[in-house]
């Protein structure tokens, strides 16, 4: 989800709730402690220089169990970060601590924001020697060579 998308969704909500893909929820008393832009410049294993840019939200739970972040307040935090930091309209990455700090993509299921699990991948598979996926073929599509046994030949 891009920053522009969350800005369109927030005014339509009564509450802001985050749900993990496994169905559990971030406790309702969470805080958004950071909104920023992360710029990552790196080289992949194939030698290609790459640049990534994401908007980062950090969620945090404190012991103030009565705290509730309302949609208007989150929208204000986003607008302030755009104004003060010059944040661009990029994909949102959410940091949230479970057993360790996890990074999630952000989705929306019509009611709640969903923290979508991220995975790693090789960006230069051809340079790493990772074989491409084998194509599946039907036996009926294989050609018969002269050295093969024909079922009607009596050799089988």
Task: Give structural notes.
- This protein has helices at residues 3-9, 71-85, 125-128; strands spanning 18-20, 30-43, 49-61, 92-97, 101-108, 113-117.
- The protein is an alpha/beta fold.
- Strand 2 (30-43) and strand 3 form a beta hairpin.
- It starts with a helix and ends in a 28-residue tail after the last helix.
Instruction: Give the N-terminus to C-terminus distance in angstroms.
Output: 60 Å
Major beta sheet, strand line-up: 1-6-5-4-3-2
- Poorly predicted tracts of residues: none
- Proportion of β residues? 25-35%
* Approximate shape: elongated
The description of the largest β-sheet is: 6 strands, mixed
By helix and strand content, what is the structural category?
alpha/beta
Mean pLDDT: 90
Instruction: Give the H and E element order.
Output: HEEEHEEEH
Range of helix content = 10-25%
Number of strands: 6
Tally of DSSP helical segments: 3
Radius of gyration: 25 Å
In short:
The protein is of the alpha/beta class and 156 residues long. The protein is built from three helices and six strands, in the order αβββαβββα.
List strands and helices in order, with pairings:
Elements lengths: L2 H7 L8 E3 L9 E14 L5 E13 L9 H15 L6 E6 L3 E8 L4 E5 L7 H4 L28
Parallel strand pairs: 1-6, 3-4
Antiparallel strand pairs: 2-3, 4-5, 5-6
């Amino acid at each position: 989800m891009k920053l522009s998308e969350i800005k369109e969704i927030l005014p339509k909500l009564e509450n802001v709730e985050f749900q993990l893909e496994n169905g559990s929820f971030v406790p309702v008393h969470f805080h958004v402690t950071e909104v920023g832009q992360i710029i990552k410049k790196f080289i992949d294993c194939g030698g290609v220089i790459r640049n990534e840019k994401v908007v980062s939200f950090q969620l945090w739970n404190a012991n103030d169990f009565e705290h509730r972040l309302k949609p208007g307040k989150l929208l204000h935090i986003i607008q302030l970060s755009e104004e003060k930091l010059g944040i661009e309209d990029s994909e949102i990455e959410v940091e949230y601590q479970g057993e360790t700090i996890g990074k999630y993509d952000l989705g929306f299921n019509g009611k709640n924001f969903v923290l979508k699990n991220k995975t790693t991948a090789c960006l230069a598979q051809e340079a790493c020697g990772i074989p491409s996926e084998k194509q599946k073929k039907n036996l009926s599509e294989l050609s018969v060579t002269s050295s093969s046994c024909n079922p009607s030949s009596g050799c089988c």
